[in-house]
User: What shape does this take?
Amino acid sequence: MIIELIKYFASFVLILLIQLLVINNIELTTYVNPYIYIIFILSLPVTTKPWHVVVISFGTGMIMDTFSSTPGLHMAAVGFMGYFRNFYLQFACSKEDYESRIKPSISRKGIVWFLVYVSIMTLMHHMVLFYLEIYSLKEFFRTLLRVLSSSFFTVLLISVGQILFYPSDKAR
Amino acid sequence: MRNLIFFFHKYYTFILFFLLELFSFVILFQYNNYQKASFLNFTGGMASGFYESVNSTTNYFGLRNINDSLLAENARLRAQMLNAYYQSGFTQTSINDSAYKQQYTYISANVVNNSVTKRNNYITIDKGSLHGIKPDMGVMSANGVVGIVTSVSEHFSTIRSALNGNTKISCMLKKNNAFGSLEWNGDDPKFSSMKFVNKHVPIGMNDEIVTSNYSTLFPQGIPVGHVYSHSLDAGENFHLIKVELYTNFSTLKNVYVIQNILKEEQETLESNLKGDN
Assistant: This one.
């Protein structure tokens, strides 16, 4: 149990460092702002209690906010996503998945399932994040384009990361 | 009562989510409406300290560029020194002349965190209230304007960069003093747009744009950029000007915070005027 917690903590720190030091410095255009740190929330085991997920999501958002000087912004977006993750998983996971306490990943659920899951969650997160960031509907379509292109890169990076870090059918 | 307990028991996740979401919205909107000084003080120098230690390592890779820009700036400043001028007349103005009173002082600072591709970009620098920085001071680089200080902690400050939807910098065309407002539309960190220039004002390509004398944040004439393209919409009263910025935000390392010594005096006077109306 303790070892599990330490593992989670280490992966949390690692993911945040990658986000803050590598991904945030990709300065291609203003239309590519991937936020891969949400993979931490997305890959929590399906049996994690919903209110745990909500609290963890808001905590993650708060830390991101601290480091990007945007109070409340990431918190609102990740919290929103974390809350709806529970509903999506209830709908998308079978009873066996819950019984074997899987973590959503490519190796466990297949690439199509995983892509659909990550895409929906990423769109949800980015939609809230980018529209709250601009804080008006004045640039609606430009923001929408920004959401879509950033989501594409987020999903791409997350999937590549999954394939790189969990390549085989490891019993995780 | 039992129903109430049952209700809480059934929906506690939703209630928790709702409360936390409400909380984040509250601090988000407060932040959009007011200065975010309290937020930076609340989180302390924690994030800034982290970025500073990362930066002290990565800075070494950019030393050549920093040196080049400092050399260029030195050359420019040297050209402005008194002994760079040939004395054509007999009179010589002394710096201590009572006709000249210093209005602006500059505090140099290093950038520890910066972004250019978000819709609202912020810069963190390694000088804070201990060094005399206060919110609402202008910030410039060796090449041109950078932004406006929004919040200050003891050792760090955050700057709303010119690449931010909420930053509006009063500027003007150098050749005819027609003024407008510099606002970023979120597209490209190399370009910004100048708004509210009346359509009867003649504009040419490459016209230089500098800060105007209306702003209390910047001295008049700090370079901003030059006209890249301009157009006039039918039925519009204002030019649409695309400005190529002089400041390269993605390689920004050293900045100067501008302290306007007479700012309070001017603002008190102007607020008195508003009270009269």
